[in-house]
Amino acid sequence: MAINYDWPSQSETKILGKRFNRLDGPWKVRGTAEYAYDRNLDGMLVARLVTCPHAHAKITAIDIEPAKRVKGFRAAEIINPVGTELQWTHQEVLAIAADTEEAARDCANAVRVSYEVLPHWMGDEDVKKAGEHNRVQPAEDKEDGDVVKGFEEAEVTHEGYYGLAMITHCCLEPHGQVVDWKDNGEIWVYASTQAVSRISADLAKSLTEDDRFKDVKANQIRCITPVMGGGFGSKFNIDTWGVACAKLSKVTGKPVKLMLDRREELAVAGSRPSDFGHIKVGAKKDGTLTAFEAETWSTGGVAGRGAPPLPYIFQDIPNRKTRHLNVSTNTGPARAWRAPNHPQAAALTMTALTDLAAKLDMDPFDLFKKNLGFTPRAEVYSAEMDKAAELFGWKQKFHKPGDGKGHIKRGVGMSIHTWAGRPHDSTCRVSIEPDGSVTAALASQDLGVGCRTAIAAVLAETVGLPLDVVKVEIGDSVLPPSSASGGSTTIGGVSASTRRAATHALRKLAEVVAPDLGVAADDIAVGDGKVFAASDPSKSLSWKDACRKLGTKTIAEMGAQPARDQGKLNDSGVGGVQMAEVSVDTETGIVKVEKMVAVQDVGYVVALEQAESQVYGALIQGIAWALFEERVYDQMTGAYLNADMEFYKLSGIGDIGELVVHMVQGPYDDRGVIGLGEPPAISPGAALSNAVQNALGVRVPTMPMTADRVLAAIEKGGLS
Amino acid sequence: MQNFEYIAPTTVDNAVKSLGSEWGTTELLYGGTDTISLLKERITTPSRVVSLKNVEALHGVSKAGSGVKIGSMTTLSKLAADKNIAKSYPALVEAIEGIHSMQQRSMATIGSDLMQRPRCWYFRNGFGLLATSNGKALVPNGENQYHAILGNKGPAYFVSASLLAPALVALGAKATVAGPDGSRQVAVEDLFRIPSSDKERETTLKPNEVLTEITLPGTKAANATYEVHQRQLFDWPLTAASVSLKMKGKTVEDAVVVLGHVAPKPWRSSEAENALKGKTISEAVAAEAGKAAVASATPLSKNKHKVQLASVAVKRAILKAAGVSA
């Protein structure tokens, strides 16, 4: 068969770009999917962490002796030794392994750690106060054009204060792993990770830093993660608890499980930085933007974090000046959170533009449209805004800010976003057996998003077989390596490596079968479970009969991303538009989501239903951080007060309203596959904040828009 | 959790006998929806846990004159499904319906709801019921957005967690309590108190007493509960109000107005009750009663919004009970 890597047109595909169920659905519904947390190996011990109760303290003594007297104690491994300065509550001190979880908890409770308590700082929104405590550092100053001139040219100027609180990833499967350090030197790690191929090197490096384990090599270590319960950017590394877990396994000679508990998961395993700031925008009377100025600050914990990309999307506004400050707080450190910095940037930009539109007496839809020339993809946004408006009924629903009737006020808002989603490096091996069975094998991971199903779709479409007969092996580091799942890079990478490997394997099969059909290998085609001559489809074999010709041979061919001259299979850079409708009870300040519409382009859609699910998930997650989620710390004690799922509030089924997702298919198919995990997670907050502004006629400046914040905004601003 | 002895006696007498006379030495399991978390977090570390699940006499609803008797081990889902209760005591059923969790309604009992400990996040983080650190009260200048706006002179600032208590108080319910010296009956309102030292709990029960029964008198009064919820998912109300209105024609002859999640105990508002007596219910009258209910509120640094939310809850509960649409 002539080698052609290019994606088939979706007008001809049987599977790609169509709807089908995810392959792991039944395993999860039946409870047969084995998560890291589900691994219970023979003789396995359970480990718990001992963590710091203070927000900032130096360890002065660690006494493990009382734990050794607890029945079931096996071993302890120090993570942070005496003398270490700890910078947030629940930071790890040591891990302790025992026969059972109960015994491990008793052991952890028995350990005595002494601290020299040091001054802490928790607050991030009040930058002046943080500055008085020497907790503010300049992070970035940028100026393009002449903002003074830009604002002089402006006929209407708006200045406002906006912000959003620090939140946490709140993975439903917490961080952690089971490590089985075997007698033969193999170290099997059942990890909840976004980086199956990376764990071996990461763990080996950390272990060799300890003299007791200095000879450990990465090739001793195998990471096994067939399914995974969410990462959102927080699970790229083995982490201190993973290293301690491996050491405990070696020291005890037993498999050891160490999964964070809910409190630890919310405290130490990832946070999304806050952002607050004063935004000033200027425009001509017709809405043409002339200047943008921002002074922003945020915290990502003790260390700094990057400034949000401002102005967001409208990046080419002629005159721009931005200044960002870092507030250092004794809170769990930032980790990448689904589109790092973008949700914050959208929440600071799209809100200010919407308020400017109000001042201009314009529909923000028209203001956004008017200025699309300042964005990198004007045509994409324009078409997607039109589609979203049609699905949402924007023109019928939009009204001037403030909804006159009664105490329940409805409003609409919108936001636009972008993300790169370039493909990551990936290698895949596709094998065809003489009995006709087909397998794609690659050490990628499925974070719960449907990656396994997408790989199967590519494989099945390429070899012309139904989805349920091909096999996909992922989540094991002995398989051909793929990069970590971060930056929405997975789908572009694994779809290309799988497509290429399958194409190569098929070519080998064609070479075996062609003589029997009396045609050249270049003439062989596949489809509908048949192998046939493209020039004369009557010359045909069933897939099984064709594979039988392999005799005792198995075909196993590799495919890779990147691979020069092997087809244009992927790209980077997408747009996306979201609209939200809310109702706000002005007597209680409770915001209810009525409807959200998301229009999203991702190039060539591989698995439609799984793609839509990604967007639904992003909207639901976005509703949570727009309306409910925040980390609450007590300034006096440094305690993290809501590290639980009772007062750290996520959204439930009754909170999400009607969600409409439209994946753009067709116009951008020839760009190939582009990542999707992150882009739809950017706009929900900005769209919802704008909808509340439209309902009330006043801005609720900061998210989450809880009852107290909404009522305060109403009281301050009065209803218009 | 710390190891403990677990027993599940079959009689109230044996349950009472197995309880210690000091708080914290033993804990009762009415439903376990709260106590299990407290044990896991080591907020309480008793040496014995006494489950009441095998005491048959404490399960179920029965008629008592013109009213009903409810065993303290009756689950909330059973209670909500009871036809007599649904007919006469909508305030109670509405409070149960405010618990947006089938799991909670199936496991929690009327006893576990009334006896649950406060949700105060300082308490749950180990700072004690009065939320102190090195002798200093943490709540007044701390994260008090969910804390009390009434009855909050200190040292207690938490809000009573019970979801059913405001309705039960509004409906004039009485509680039967068994102890070493036999049984006694108290108004549900008097099950609660505002502790004045960290040696006290938020209940007037003695450590070795068991809540056995709730008795609801027959009523013809219109009654309702309204809760302000941030989320539709299982979530504690920000504020709640239950009202019972005894009508004479179109005018209110007598009223009971009880607020929830605003004070360290269910908060009966005589101010709101007085604002209703002799009036015909309208939105303006209900709003006046709502305002009266919070007239003496003393919000803390971060919970001013709860004054408004309490006032609105009272107003809406009154309108709901009276069948007047806002």
Tell me what the structure shows.
The complex is a heterodimer of chains A (720) and B (326). Chain A has 720 residues and is an alpha+beta fold. Chain A is built from 18 helices and 29 strands. Chain A has a seven-stranded mixed β-sheet with strand order 3-5-1-13-10-11-12, sandwiched between helices. In chain A, strands 7-17-16-15-8-29 form a six-stranded mixed β-sheet, sandwiched between helices. In chain A, strands 18-26-27-28 form a four-stranded mixed β-sheet. In chain A, β19 (426-432) and β20 form a beta hairpin. In chain A, α9 (342-360) runs parallel beside α17 and α13 (451-463) packs parallel to α14. The termini of chain A are far apart. With 326 residues, chain B is α+β, with helices and mostly antiparallel strands. In chain B, strands 4-5-10-8-9 form a five-stranded antiparallel β-sheet. In chain B, strands 11-12-13-14 form a four-stranded antiparallel β-sheet. In chain B, a hairpin with a 2-residue loop joins β12 and β13 (251-260). Chain B is globular and about 55 Å long. The N and C termini of chain B lie far apart (49 Å). Chain A binds chain B through residues 102, 105-106, 109, 407, 587-590, 627-628, 632-637, 639, 641-642, 644, 646-647, 649-655, 706-708, 711-712, and chain B through 1-3, 42, 100, 119, 121-122, 124-125, 127, 133, 136, 138, 141-143, 145-146, 228-236, 238, 302-305, 308-309, 312, 326.
Distance N to C terminus of chain B: 49 Å
Give the helix level of chain B as a range of percent: 25-40%
The gross shape of chain A turns out to be flat
- The backbone outline of chain B, from C-alpha atoms, is globular
Poorly predicted parts of chain B: none
Write down how many β-strands of chain A occur, each being a DSSP E stretch of 2 or more residues. 29
Number of helices of chain B: 12
Q: Largest sheet of chain B, order of strands side by side? A: 4-5-10-8-9
Q: Biggest interface and its residues per chain?
A: A-B, 35 and 37 residues
Summed over residues and divided by their number, the pLDDT of chain A gives a mean of 97
Number of helix segments of chain A?
Answer: 18
Strand content of chain A: 15-25%
What helical percentage do the residues of chain A reach?
A: 25-40%
